[in-house]
Amino acid sequence: MFWKFDLHTTSHIDQLLDREDVTLRELMEEEDVLQECKAQNRRLLLFLSQDHCMQELVSLITEEPPADLEEKTRFKFPNIACELLISDMTVINDKLGGDESLLEKLYSFLERDPPLNPLLASFFSKTIGNLIARKTEQVISFLRKKHSFISLVLNHIDASAMMDLLLRLISCVEPAPLRQEVLNWLNEERLIQRLTELMHTGRDEERQSNASQTLCDIIRLSRDQANQMPEATEPDPLLVVLESEENVAQLLKSMFEGEKTEASIVNGTQVLLTLLESRRSGLEGLMELYSQGCERSYTVSGSILRAIEPHLKDFQQLLLDPPKKSAILTTVGVLEQPLGNARLHVARLVASLLQSSDHSICQELCRLNTMDLLLDLFFKYTWNNFLHFQVELCVASILNHSAHAGLQTPALQNHEENSVPVSDSQTEQEIPDLTSSTDSLFQQCRLVQRILDAWEENDKIQAAGGTRRGNMGHLTRIANTVVQNLEKGQVQSQINNLIKELPEDCRGRWESFVGETLRETNRKNTVDLVSTHNLHSSSEDDDLESPFPNDLSIQQAFSDYQIQQMTANFVDQFGFNDEEFSEHDENINATFDRIAEINFNIDADDNSANAAAFEACYKERIQQFDDCEEEEDIWEDKAINYATQVKSRSRFGVSLSSDSSPKDPVRNGQRGRGSASEEEEEEEGASPPSIQTPGSEKASSPRTPQSKFSLQISGIRSTMSDHILLY
């Protein structure tokens, strides 16, 4: 046995721990120190939990290592120390969370001047985060006593590890009452307001980005937890502040006050987009919701929309006069004035606002003619698919919400206390507001004319050998959206009237475009890229040679029928079902017996047209068993064909004993004669001849053509079972 060789190796750590003067550094030099720690090596854990070891571990993750060390080994010990502290061992957690001197040493890391070493900051954040999850009450109590804790964390917000620490405070505290206390504490510290102030244009871009990401994550986390705990008696105070009109107004003020920078615009808009995200059950994607039209149910807080509305003109100005950007080289040439991230985020914001279906917002966007400006950008930047998708969403939102204006009301907004109250007069007012959006899209924005002009211009470019424009796919989808709403829905009559108001030549071009060009484009877009025709391999069919001449149609039809039966039912026939597999081994023959039971009856009438040909074929190929022949010497040297032996065994399903009569060539899996393979297959399919007395063969009845044909069928049945076993 393998254990008698004593292959078990003792860890070198145990040998080191036997020494009285062993140091922490010596143990950390061992490659398996983490493995032994997580394997709960008791001696190692007791050593690590000693005061001087814990002090040294905390110092390693909070103090800058010497600069003269080689870079690849400089942070080796701090990394190992962090992994040991967060190994989730109870003795280490108890020691670190219960010793206030160790917590003070950890906390001192925050009191350093920025910027922090990002690697050490991640070690600190991981260690504190682990304590928040494992020793929640002790750590929260310690942090609440530190009145400068939030200020210090925000002072180092340029390090992403500090952002992670704030999110752990919000999401990793259990139970629910303690979590509510933490949220109230963070709200008292004005966490949201202070993060919003960091979005000011004069701040460092890294701070702005991390502050924006923190606010977005807090919004999503708070909403998710609110959905998971609907029985919560108190609302999330952080989410209430985030959705308040005062906070959104402060965010917008920080974005547009002073010099407008792309970083402040993009980061602030990301927070607004997160606030405008729908809150609904399920994980349906944006594209799925878009395909469903305006049946998506939004629960956008009315206070958010009321705060954004006065600043729509500022976003409109950004589309006209974005932050300056230098020319860039693209794969299609030099772009002198790039679209820029700021204008792309404005387009995303407009799409989200239109999807909210708020009548006041839609009215203001129509007054500013924002859609006309977005369509200008759509046709100017023909290769920016991010922009194309947002413009497509805007068009679909206007048409779909108009079509469902009679069904959907401002109840799309949430039913919270801070939602805008909905009255009957407002419901009646929304319909003409959304209808005016559709009118503006077809009249002021000239959507139909733009589609036709862009399509014709693209055709000219392609006819001259140019490249198809990059916005043609989204333009096709926009055209299809118009046609779909033109053919059905409550907005059908309105769009029909708008189409009729077009100039006569434009109306004719549109009808021709829809009936011919767009129809053909849609047909091409739905064609399968790969043919669905089943390509059939004939390799197996080639191996199944028919025993009949190919010029005889009835024999060829019979052969094709047998092959068709094998291939069509092969999966069902091959193998065992549960009952057969669990029974005695003799049932192993059942599969091939079923194949042999296939019947194909053809009456070979002497009067038929093929009777003479069949008789000639029979006389040429079929030879009768003759028991009077000279007995074959089985020991005679000759070529051995193993395939024939396999066939004979598979035909009967089991191997026969070796003491079978040598007079029976079929039972012994050997050739009875040296004839061609066709003759052997026909003979092998016949029943083994019985022992007869002299003269008995003469007394036997002669075989008729029909019985001869049955002999052929039996041979093919056997050949089929042979091939199934071989393949």
From TrEMBL:
<comment type="similarity">
    <text>Belongs to the SAPS family.</text>
</comment>
<dbReference type="GO" id="GO:0019903">
    <property type="term" value="F:protein phosphatase binding"/>
</dbReference>
<dbReference type="GO" id="GO:0019888">
    <property type="term" value="F:protein phosphatase regulator activity"/>
</dbReference>
<dbReference type="InterPro" id="IPR016024">
    <property type="entry name" value="ARM-type_fold"/>
</dbReference>
<dbReference type="GO" id="GO:0005829">
    <property type="term" value="C:cytosol"/>
</dbReference>
<dbReference type="InterPro" id="IPR007587">
    <property type="entry name" value="SAPS"/>
</dbReference>
<feature type="compositionally biased region" description="Polar residues">
    <location>
        <begin position="692"/>
        <end position="715"/>
    </location>
</feature>
<feature type="region of interest" description="Disordered">
    <location>
        <begin position="653"/>
        <end position="715"/>
    </location>
</feature>
<protein>
    <recommendedName>
        <fullName>Protein phosphatase 6, regulatory subunit 2a</fullName>
    </recommendedName>
</protein>
<dbReference type="GO" id="GO:0005634">
    <property type="term" value="C:nucleus"/>
</dbReference>
<dbReference type="Pfam" id="PF04499">
    <property type="entry name" value="SAPS"/>
</dbReference>
